[in-house]
């Protein structure tokens, strides 16, 4: 396609110097040019997959979404993501793009074209030219927050996560959204954010919230946040970070609270918690995440505390793959044999750990102390 090749050439020349750029996208569906902002993470790796975040009302929301994305990915709260902002404020385009029939609540003719522009032109172009992950999110405010719901009307939504900020609801949307959310079998995230100051849509939004909350569906991850001190303008700045925290919570390192309330209280093997956490990332987001050292140490501590030594062995096998140059794998395996009452195997394994690189709290001195203690205890 002509517009794809033009934009690709322009972007290629700009991305080398900047993470954020603004370009003109020539849309065949809309028969017009649209301003689009692009944010690409630093040092993008073609071997990695990046979630795609589509931001409506780009002039208002794009920079806030980018800032939150950079902050959360920097501190492990979410994966690095590609963020796309679609400008809609000039000549009040947002009202044309997102207009709906006042009788049936369905998109207007221009709305249908805008819908196709995003789903059939913009996203396919990004999927074709960049290493995008299957996981896709859309964010809207006010009338654009309502518009994003129309993707729920398809049997297979192209979006896996929706952030709806103070939506201006089309007719019947308070019943249609819960009904549609109840039909999806795949994992779906829906975040609704509203202000404390009442407006003409507040009652219907609260009705929609109650209906969604009543759904009994494990595949639906629904979050509702009301900010009492916010009004319809300030609400835009309130909830994006919290929404990322909710949707990408699985990416965060194991917290002390999580350790105490979920890992230590579970009757399942300790290692299963770690395995399920990282498999869940693959299942929901479509790509794997390297196992963080913080999580390994949490599972190690829990295995020791609960005397779950089989989990310690499984953890040692994992560490040999994830941190092959370090002491982790063999040191944990040495402790496993030590607890199993097999001193010879433990001694040999600690000797291997001694030859590896130190990491975190594990030092060669600790391995040497283990070896000396075994020799004394068992007369080696």
Provide a compact summary of the structure.
With 380 residues, this protein is α/β, with parallel strands linked by helices.
What does it look like?
The chain has an eight-stranded mixed sheet, sandwiched between helices. It has 16 helices and eight strands. It has two domains: 250 residues, Alpha/Beta hydrolase fold, catalytic domain (Rossmann fold), CATH 3.40.50; 123 residues, Serine Threonine Protein Phosphatase 5, Tetratricopeptide repeat. The protein is an alpha/beta fold and 380 residues long. The N terminus is likely disordered.
Write the topology of this structure.
Layout: H1 2-15, E1 20-27, E2 32-39, E3 50-55, H2 58-74, E4 82-86, H3 93-97, H4 109-129, E5 132-141, H5 143-148, E6 161-165, H6 173-181, E7 188-195, H7 202-213, E8 220-227, H8 235-238, H9 240-247, H10 256-263, H11 270-285, H12 293-305, H13 309-322, H14 328-340, H15 343-354, H16 364-378
Parallel strand pairs: 3-4, 3-5, 5-6, 6-7, 7-8
Antiparallel strand pairs: 1-2, 2-4
């Amino acid at each position: 396609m002509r517009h794809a090749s033009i934009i690709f050439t322009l972007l290629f020349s700009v991305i080398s110097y900047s993470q954020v750029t603004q370009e003109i996208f020539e849309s065949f569906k809309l028969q017009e040019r649209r301003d689009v902002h692009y944010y690409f993470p630093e040092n993008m790796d073609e071997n990695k997959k990046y979630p795609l975040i589509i931001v409506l009302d780009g002039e208002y929301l794009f920079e806030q979404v980018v800032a939150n994305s950079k902050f959360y990915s920097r501190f492990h709260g979410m994966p690095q993501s590609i963020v796309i902002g679609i400008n809609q404020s000039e000549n009040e385009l947002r009202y044309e793009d997102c207009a709906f029939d006042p009788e049936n609540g369905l998109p207007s003719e221009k709305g249908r074209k805008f819908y196709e522009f995003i789903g059939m032109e913009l996203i396919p172009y990004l999927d074709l030219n960049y290493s995008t992950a299957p996981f896709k999110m859309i964010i809207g405010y006010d009338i654009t927050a309502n518009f994003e719901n129309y993707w729920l009307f398809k049997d297979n939504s192209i979006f896996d996560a929706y952030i709806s900020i103070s939506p201006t609801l089309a007719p019947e949307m308070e019943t249609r959204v819960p009904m549609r959310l109840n039909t999806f079998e795949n994992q779906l995230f829906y975040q609704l954010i509203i202000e404390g100051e009442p407006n003409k849509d507040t009652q219907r939004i609260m009705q929609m919230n109650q209906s969604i909350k009543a759904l009994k569906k494990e595949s639906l991850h629904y979050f509702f946040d009301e900010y009492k001190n916010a009004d319809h303008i300030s609400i835009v700045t309130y909830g994006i970070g919290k929404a990322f925290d909710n949707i990408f919570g699985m990416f965060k390192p194991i917290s002390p609270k999580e350790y105490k309330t979920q890992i230590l209280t579970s009757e399942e093997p300790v290692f299963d918690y770690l395995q399920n956490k990282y498999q869940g990332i693959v299942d929901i987001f479509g790509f794997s995440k390297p196992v963080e050292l913080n999580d390994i140490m949490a599972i190690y501590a829990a295995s020791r505390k609960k005397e779950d030594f089989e989990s310690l062995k499984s953890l040692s096998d994992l560490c040999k793959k994830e941190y092959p140059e370090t002491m982790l794998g063999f040191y944990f395996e040495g402790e496993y044999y030590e607890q199993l009452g097999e001193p010879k195997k433990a001694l040999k394994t600690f000797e291997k750990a001694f030859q590896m690189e130190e990491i975190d709290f594990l030092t060669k001195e600790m391995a040497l102390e283990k070896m000396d203690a075994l020799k004394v205890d068992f007369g080696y």
